[in-house]
Amino acid sequence: MNSKIAVIGGGLAGITAAIALAESGADVTLLEARPRLGGATCSFSRDGLTVDTGQHIFLGCCTAYRGLLDRLGMTGHTTLQDRFDVTVLTPGADGRPRKARLRRTALPGPLHMLPALGRYPFLSLAERAKVARPALAMRFVDPADPAADTQRFGDWLARRGQSERTRRALWDLFSVSALNIAGDDASLALAAVVVKTGLLGKNNAADIGVPALPLGELHGDAGGTLLAKLGARVMMGTKVAAIEPGETGYRIQLAQGEPLAADAVVLAVPHEKAAPLIPAGALPEQTVAGWAGLGASPIVNVHVIYDRPVMDLPFVAAIDSPVQWVFDRTRISGLDRPGHQYLAISLSAADQYADTPAAQLREQFLPALAELFPAARDANVAEFFVTRERRATFRQAPGSGALRPKAATAQPGLVLAGAWTDTGWPDTMEGAVRSGLAAAVELKASLSTIGVSK
């Protein structure tokens, strides 16, 4: 390629597209409104701590994201389980927490999870006996079928014998964190991707990977370094005001500074920011207007630093508690307080907490942590703070699939990217990377067709 390409948006989708296009020989300029790359997966400093905007994990089946890590040279700075293994805690009536362990076997999928589910103590024997029914039925759900996108996951489970208790104590463990919406309210089509790919696919598909570096280093810094090596230009703190098609190429109007000229554009920003930037005629007006229906779901992160260790695992899940997942961030944050431990609670589908004052969250979550971790009852809280991602993902409810656009537009040389686009995956890091790759492929084909690229 010998074209000049502007990539608007420096999240995972934009970084991925920019790398792929720069590797093809294009003259790439990446424009990011914020002062750092990474989008929803970045970090910031707070009183000497490095804090991620949210706790992100990946799974063994996230092949596109893992490919990006390889390209960035960051695979060695993550840890991937050799076997899916999650400890689940629940408060005990006697004050002692109860514990379960969901660990897969070496059996081929989907048999690999059956022994763990058969022993899961938070369900009755009758409830455990019924878990296989939806698991087997899910094999026949096509995530690409528009009819699947019209159904609620909870309704589908209930029709297959899954009680309220089973849905909360088991299915929500996987669906809420993956889809960032209450489990019953999720689109069946997107839930099917999670279940079929992660739980019923290859036996290593759901093995959990966690970063060993702050996300800002893992994605943003590494992405900027690689793009510089590839000869791409990265402009941070640069907000795009308009995309104006011309007879040949595009004029990118900036909120400040001189406009930029480009042969082609990758628009890789969230849907609510993409809508006002789409040039007239690039997509039907009703399509762009429909993006508002994607909405947004928040994630809230509660951060607690104790004066002593209270949790002895890298992460745990919880049920029958306001706590969902807890991660030990002591080392990754650079905490330099001997003997202290830094825990982060990740709350998905956090509509009820999005605007709750930090003082109220402290009153609720410190006792909740003490119910799960007895050592926390005698520990002193050195620091407590809250971070909020009010628009962490689009709302992955029934009907959302019909609103997600493909990468291509009717405007030659203009493509879309972002985890909200039609990637075939939920709004996740994997979905974002897949969208960036799809945008690069589509743009190369588009430029070849109109004769810009050689």
CATH class division of the largest domain: Alpha Beta
Distance from first to last alpha carbon: 6 Å
- Taking all residues together, what is the mean pLDDT? 95
The fold-level CATH name of the largest domain is FAD/NAD(P)-binding domain
Question: Judging from the principal axes of the Cα atoms, what is the shape?
Answer: globular
Oligomer: single chain
* Sheet with the most strands, sense and barrel status: 7 strands, mixed
Indicate the proportion of strand residues.
15-25%
Number of helices: 14
Structure description:
There is one protein chain. The chain is α/β, with parallel strands linked by helices and 454 residues long. The protein has 3 domains: 166 residues, 3-Layer(bba) Sandwich (FAD/NAD(P)-binding domain); 89 residues, Orthogonal Bundle (Guanine Nucleotide Dissociation Inhibitor, domain 1); 97 residues, Polyamine Oxidase, Chain A, domain 2 (Alpha-Beta Complex), CATH 3.90.660. The strands form 5 sheets. The chain has a 7-stranded mixed beta sheet. The mean pLDDT is 95.
SSE layout and pairings?
Blueprint lengths: L3 E5 L3 H12 L3 E6 L10 E4 L2 E4 L5 E2 L3 H10 L5 E3 L4 E6 L7 E6 L10 H5 L6 H6 L1 H6 L8 H4 L3 H6 L5 H16 L8 H12 L8 E4 L3 H15 L3 E4 L3 E6 L4 E5 L5 E3 L1 E4 L3 H4 L10 H6 L6 E10 L8 E4 L6 E4 L12 E7 L10 H15 L8 E13 L20 E3 L12 H22 L4
